[in-house]
Amino acid sequence: MAVKPPEEGSFWDHLEEFRRRLFVMLATVAVLTTVSFFFSRYTTGCITSTSPCELVALAPAEAVTAHLRLSVAIGVIAASPVLLFQIWRFVAPGLYEKERKGVISVTAAGTLLFIGGAAFAWFVMRRPALVLFQSFETGNIHGTWSVSAYLGFIGSFLLVFGAAFQLPLAVLFLTKTGVIQPRTLGKYRRHVVVGLLVMAAILTPPDPLTQVMLALPLYILFELSLVVARISFRKVGSNLEKADE
């Protein structure tokens, strides 16, 4: 049986360690943000070139602000391995050996799922959503999008899909901890579909197309995670039976 390592140091020692790791995290983000700012003209140009209409700056400093926001976002994304490592190093001493291995696996899976969700939003969802929004600009309505508004929309769009694609981890967590069994989730599949549609309606802009386009991959991920949860659940049951024997 794995023994939990004893806690060492006082509250102030842990606070000092947290301060040091937080400083490393902030310094890493600051350095990578500064580096990305030197390439912000190229990255901003690549993203704004995907806009279906001409973008404008509605304030003297809006273009600079847009470059800064994009640089910060890229800096945080680029620094994510360091951020996760620092968080891991801070919490690892208080975990069992089995939990440490689980945290690494969950972190890797969550990162891949987030990247997959963001990629799906960029390559699949972005163009239909923009076309749909622009289709409502009829009659005397002519869209004039600002640089900050467009970059903010793209950023939140990628973030929402990346976060929503964490659904398999939530399903596996619920089944692993025994909160709910895979068989029960399968019985309430219709309720899950309604819940996914409600979640998609909350996370996406208020139009049926983007809601369905988000709910559909989430449902596929739910079914896949349910299969994995059933396999894992059977392995746990078989191990318990062997232990009883």
Share of helix, binned:
over 70%
Our count of domains comes out at: 2
What class would the helix/strand composition place it in?
A: mainly alpha
Give the rounded overall mean pLDDT. Answer: 79
Q: Topology as H/E string?
A: HHEHHEHHHHH
Shape: flat
Spatial gap, N to C terminus: 19 Å
| Number of continuous helical runs | 9
- Sheet with the most strands: spatial strand order: 1-2
Verbal overview:
The chain has about 240 residues and is mainly α. It has two domains: about 10-135, no CATH class; about 165-245, no CATH class. Helices cover about 80% and strands about 0% of the residues. It contains nine helices and two strands, in the order ααβααβααααα. It has helices at about 10-40, 40-50, 60-90, 95-135, 145-165, 165-175, 180-185, 190-205, 210-245; strands at about 55, 145. A two-stranded parallel ribbon has the order 1-2. Helix 2 (about 40-50) crosses helix 3 and helix 8 packs across helix 9. The radius of gyration is 23 Å and the shape is flat. The two termini are about 20 Å apart. Residues about 240-245 have low confidence and may be disordered.
Q: What is the compact description of this entry?
A:
This protein has 245 residues and is mostly helical.
Relevant terms:
245 residues, mainly alpha, two-stranded parallel sheet, 2 strands, flat, disordered C terminus
Topology:
Layout lengths: L10 H28 L1 H9 L6 E2 L5 H30 L5 H39 L9 E2 H18 L2 H10 L5 H6 L1 H15 L4 H37 L1
Helix pairs in contact: 1-3, 2-3, 3-5, 4-5, 4-9, 6-9, 8-9
